[in-house]
Design brief:
It is a single chain. α11 crosses α13. The strands form five sheets. This protein has a five-stranded parallel beta sheet with strand order 4-3-2-5-6, sandwiched between helices. The chain has a five-stranded parallel beta sheet with strand order 16-15-14-17-18. 33% of the residues lie in helices and 19% in strands. The protein has helices at 5-14, 35-47, 72-88, 101-108, 138-147, 172-183, 205-213, 229-239, 281-284, 296-299, 302-312, 328-336, 339-345, 396-405, and strands at 23-27, 30-34, 59-62, 93-94, 115-118, 132-135, 149-153, 156-163, 191-197, 222-225, 257-261, 268-270, 278-280, 291-295, 320-324, 349-350, 371-374, 390-393. The protein folds into two domains: 5-262, Aconitase, domain 3 (2-Layer Sandwich), CATH 3.30.499.10; 268-410, Aconitase, domain 3. The protein starts with a helix and ends in a 10-residue tail after the last helix. The protein is an alpha/beta fold and 415 residues long. Bound molecules: 3-isopropylmalic acid (IPM) and iron/sulfur cluster. Heterodimer of LeuC and LeuD. Keywords: 4Fe-4S, Amino-acid biosynthesis, Branched-chain amino acid biosynthesis, Iron, Iron-sulfur, Leucine biosynthesis, Lyase, Metal-binding.
Length: 415
């Protein structure tokens, strides 16, 4: 039987031919956790008295939610995890100066065809390179850390096709929001989405990562881009070697298919208080904005910072604007290309590699009555701080244009 990417990956990982609905035990290629959930993972292991991991080289840990620690409790958690890393002799540990775990996984570890599990819902991000990547709770991740295995229900594969090329100021975010507008936030429950890109270079890895990242907002078990030339180029550029590509068999069967004509997309916005409350930017433009956040594991990559820099070059923002490249690597590249200087000159506050304001943690928590435009992935009540704040999710061009004008702005109207 011709297999989808989902079936191919999970058949290899479980050692038998799988079909949607099967409950399987799959071997994990990478098991990861961060500071906030890592604490619980280690606690579960310690309570069970287990002092070994299945394979040191396959455990990845990154500090991001509490980086740098905003309070004593966060610092305590990091101290505890550093001790665990030392005791176990884990080589793939990324302290507060590396970046957001999902971005670190994408840049340094994830490969086509792998099974990746991590203690964070946005683990779907690694699907951008064609890995079956799923977020899990701390107990499941503790079990996978110990055994190198996890149990899964094989999801039903659904195909999305991206045709043509996106227009000016249209990015991966608009594709993610289009899917949410069309299908709503719970449609893909029990499914995996496999995205085929007709014209690989027109939809680069940064855009793919945004869409995969928001796969969990669609409730999909995984959101994978079918590996192609762009996957190869990305891994070659970031790591210096060419990966082997895993692709679905011709004639593989999907439960359904949906096509997006990239050239027909408009900049979209998710209005409060739900990620699927999607509107065109023109429907909400003119609303006054108190703070703009450009960053997170959704949109903190080089192209996001580049777009913001292009819009803000030689101008001044009219509202608070916080920009956070998702990793050290992204910060460094943005700095070398002059984007950081542009953003600082425009009046933005810039730091690197933290979840920070995305989940209302620190570095720009939203206050009562405030309106925020954010490039992150969630906007439910209280997500970025006060229950009385309103968060509009958008792509980096809409965010930067809104910072420039002090109100929600269509970037096509100004640049
Ligand atoms: C803290 C963590 C468990 C959570 C997640 O799993 O997604 C966070 O990263 C988020 O984005 O809300
Ligand atoms: S940046 Fe936001 S969405 Fe991503 S892992 Fe951190 S808190 Fe979660």
């Amino acid at each position: 039987m011709p297999q989808t990417l989902t079936e191919k990956i999970l058949s290899r990982a479980s050692g038998k031919e799988v079909s949607p609905g099967d409950v399987i035990e799959a071997k994990t290629d990478i098991v990861a956790f961060h500071d906030l959930t890592g604490y619980h993972v280690i606690e579960v292991m310690e309570k069970a008295g287990i002092e070994k991991v299945f394979d040191k080289s396959k455990i990845v840990i990154a500090f991001d939610h509490l980086a740098p620690p905003p309070d004593i409790r966060s610092a305590e958690i990091q101290v505890m995890i550093r001790k665990f890393v030392k005791k176990m002799g884990l080589p793939n540990f990324h302290d507060i100066n590396f970046g957001i775990m999902h971005e670190v996984l994408l840049e340094k570890y994830a490969l086509p065809g792998q099974v990746i599990v991590a203690a964070d819902s946005h683990t779907t991000t690694s699907g951008a390179v064609g890995a079956f990547a799923q977020g899990m709770g701390a107990s499941d991740i503790a079990a996978a850390t110990i055994t190198g295995k996890t149990w899964l229900v094989v999801p039903t594969p659904f195909k999305v096709e991206l045709k043509g090329s996106p227009g000016k100021w249209i990015t991966g975010k608009d594709v993610a929001l289009k899917l949410l507008q069309e299908f709503k936030a719970d449609y893909f429950n029990g499914m995996s989405i496999e995205v085929y890109v007709e014209n690989p270079s027109a939809f680069p890895m940064d855009y793919r990562a945004t869409v995969s990242n928001m796969g969990i907002e669609m409730n999909a078990d995984a959101l994978m881009f079918i590996p192609d030339e762009e996957t190869k180029n990305y891994i070659k550029t970031m790591r210096g070697y060419e990966p082997a590509l895993v692709t679905p068999d011709p004639g593989a069967k999907y439960t359904d298919e949906y096509t997006i004509e990239l050239g027909k997309l408009e900049p979209l916005v998710a209005a409060p208080y739900s990620v699927d409350n999607v509107k065109t930017v023109n429907e909400v433009e003119g609303k006054e904005v108190d703070q703009v956040f450009i960053g997170s594991c959704t949109n903190g990559r080089l192209s996001d910072i580049e777009i913001a820099a292009k819009i803000l070059k030689d101008k001044k923002v009219k509202t608070r604007c916080i920009a956070i490249p998702a990793s050290y690597e992204m910060f460094k590249r943005a700095m070398d290309l002059g984007y950081i200087e542009t953003l600082v000159n425009a009046g933005c506050i810039v730091t690197y590699g933290t979840c920070g304001p995305c989940l209302g943690g620190h570095f720009g928590v939203a206050g009562p009555g405030e309106t925020i435009v954010s490039t992150s992935n969630r906007n439910f009540r209280g997500r970025m701080g006060s229950n009385d704040s309103k968060v509009y999710l958008a792509n980096p061009a809409v965010a930067a244009a809104s910072a420039l004008e002090g109100k929600i702005t269509d970037p096509r109207s100004i640049a």
